[in-house]
C-alpha cells in the first residue's frame, strides 16, 4: 500500500532512469548530435509540455546560486513526483498538462494582516524575479541541480504583515480531482499540505518558484507557484500552491500523516539520519551513474545550521 510505503524503492527505482539518461548522453557525446526522428524508444524522451513555455522577463541572477552545473531540462521535467497526477515518475509529465494554471488565486489566511484571495500576479507584483540555481535532494536518494526562477519568500511574507503570533507557515496545493486524477484515489490525504517554521520561511534561501530554466514552470514541476527550500528533502517543496496560512501551532503535513515515523516536519537533509527503510548517506544525481555523498543540509549548512542550534536533529528529523 502506498500509504504505508509511500516511497518504496528509493534507489533501484532510479537506477534504470540514470542508466537510460547516461546512455543517451553517451550516444549523444559519441555521435555529437541528437538524431531527431530516429526514435528507437531508447532515444525518444517525451517532450515536456513547457519546452516552449513563455520566457520570463527581467530575471536577475542571484549570488545565492550554486556553481554546480545544472541538470538538463529534460531530466528535471520528465522525472517527477506529483502524486496528484499519479505515483510513477513519468505520469506527471504525461498528465499534468491538463491542469489550468490561469487564472490562479492564492488565499492568504490566519495570523497575518493582509488576508484575502489574491490573483497570483497581484500577490507577486513588483517582487524581484531571481534565478536561483539550487541543489535539490529527494528523500528517495536522487538529486538534481535546477535553475529555478522565483521570488524571495521573505519579501512576500514581509509584505503580508504576519502578526506576532505567526510561528509557522502552512501551504496547501490545489484540490480538484477532475483536473488532478491522482486525487481520485486515497494514496495521500488530499489536499497536499506542507509547512515551514516562520524563521525557515523567511530565510533568504527560501523562494516561491514560478519558473525554471528561464521559462514558466512546466505543470509537472508545480506550476504556477511552488515552494523551494533547498536544504530540505524534496517533499517539503510543495507544488501548485493555492493557500498560504500563518499559524501559531505547527501544521500537520501530508507526509507526517502518511508515515509519522518516516517523514518529520523538519525534513532537513541529513546523511546521518537514515530513513527507516534506507540509507540517506548517498545520493545519485539524475543522469549520473555513480553515487555521491549527501551533504548535511544538502550543502547549505553554512547558511541554515544556525536555525536548528540546540535541537536534537535525530528527534526533529
Ligand atoms: N507537491 C505536491 N502537491 N504533490 C506531490 O506529490 N511531491 C513532492 C514535492 N512536492 C509532491 C509535491 C516530492 S516527494 C518531491 S521529491 C518534489 O515535489 C519533486 O519535485 P519535482 O517533480 O519538481 O522534481
Itemize the secondary structure elements and their pairings.
Elements: H1 12-31, E1 60-61, H2 73-78, H3 91-95, E2 105-110, E3 116-119, H4 120-124, E4 130-137, E5 142-152, H5 153-160, E6 168-173, E7 193-197, H6 198-201, E8 207-212, E9 215-216, E10 226-228, E11 241-247, H7 254-258, E12 282-285, E13 292-293, H8 301-304
Parallel strand pairs: 1-4, 2-11, 5-12
Antiparallel strand pairs: 2-3, 4-5, 5-8, 6-7, 6-11, 8-9, 8-10, 12-13
Ligand MTE is lined by residues 80-84, 138, 173, 192, 221-222, 234-235, 237-240.
Question: In brief, what are we looking at here?
Answer:
The protein is an alpha+beta fold.
Q: What separation lies between the terminal Cα atoms? A: 23 Å
- Overall spatial form: globular
Calculate Rg over CA atoms.
Answer: 19 Å
CATH level-1 class: Alpha Beta
Name of the CATH architecture: Alpha-Beta Complex
Task: Write the H/E string, N to C.
Answer: HEHHEEHEEHEEHEEEEHEEH
Largest sheet: 8 strands, mixed
> What is the count of distinct domains?
1
Q: Would you tell me which CATH topology applies?
A: Sulfite Oxidase, Chain A, domain 2
Look at the structure and name the CATH superfamily. Answer: Oxidoreductase, molybdopterin-binding domain
- Low-pLDDT residue intervals, each spanning 5 or more residues: 11-50
Helix content: 10-25%
Amino acid at each position: 500500500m502506498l500509504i504505508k510505503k509511500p516511497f518504496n524503492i528509493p534507489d533501484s527505482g532510479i537506477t534504470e532512469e540514470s542508466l537510460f539518461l547516461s546512455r543517451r548522453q553517451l550516444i549523444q557525446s559519441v555521435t555529437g548530435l541528437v538524431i531527431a526522428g530516429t526514435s528507437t524508444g531508447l532515444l525518444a524522451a517525451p517532450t515536456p509540455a513547457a519546452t516552449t513555455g513563455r520566457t520570463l522577463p527581467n530575471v536577475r541572477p542571484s549570488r545565492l546560486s550554486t556553481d554546480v552545473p545544472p541538470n538538463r531540462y529534460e531530466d528535471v521535467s520528465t522525472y517527477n513526483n506529483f502524486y496528484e497526477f499519479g505515483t510513477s515518475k513519468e505520469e506527471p509529465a504525461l498528465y499534468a498538462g491538463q491542469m489550468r494554471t490561469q487564472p490562479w488565486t492564492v488565499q492568504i489566511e490566519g495570523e497575518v494582516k493582509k488576508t484575502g484571495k489574491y490573483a497570483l500576479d497581484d500577490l507577486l507584483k513588483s517582487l524581484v524575479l531571481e534565478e536561483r540555481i539550487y541543489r535539490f535532494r529527494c528523500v528517495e536518494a536522487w538529486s538534481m541541480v535546477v535553475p529555478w526562477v522565483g521570488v524571495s519568500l521573505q519579501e512576500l511574507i514581509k509584505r503580508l504583515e504576519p502578526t506576532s503570533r505567526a510561528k509557522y507557515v502552512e501551504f496547501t496545493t490545489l484540490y480538484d480531482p477532475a483536473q488532478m486524477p491522482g486525487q481520485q484515489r486515497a494514496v495521500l490525504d488530499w489536499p497536499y499540505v506542507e509547512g515551514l517554521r516562520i524563521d525557515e520561511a523567511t530565510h533568504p534561501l527560501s523562494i516561491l518558484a514560478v519558473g525554471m530554466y528561464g521559462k514558466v514552470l512546466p505543470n509537472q514541476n508545480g506550476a504556477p507557484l511552488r515552494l523551494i527550500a533547498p536544504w530540505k528533502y524534496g517533499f517539503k517543496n510543495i507544488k501548485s500552491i493555492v493557500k498560504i496560512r500563518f499559524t501559531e501551532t505547527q501544521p500537520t503535513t501530508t507526509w507526517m500523516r502518511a508515515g509519522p515515523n518516516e517523514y518529520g516536519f523538519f525534513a532537513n537533509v541529513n546523511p546521518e539520519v537514515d530513513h527507516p527503510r534506507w540509507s540517506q548517506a548517498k545520493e545519485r544525481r539524475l543522469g549520473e551513474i555513480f553515487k555521491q555523498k549527501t551533504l548535511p543540509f544538502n550543502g547549505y549548512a553554512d547558511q541554515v545550521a544556525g536555525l536548528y542550534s540546540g535541537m536534537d536533529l535525530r528527534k526533529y528529523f
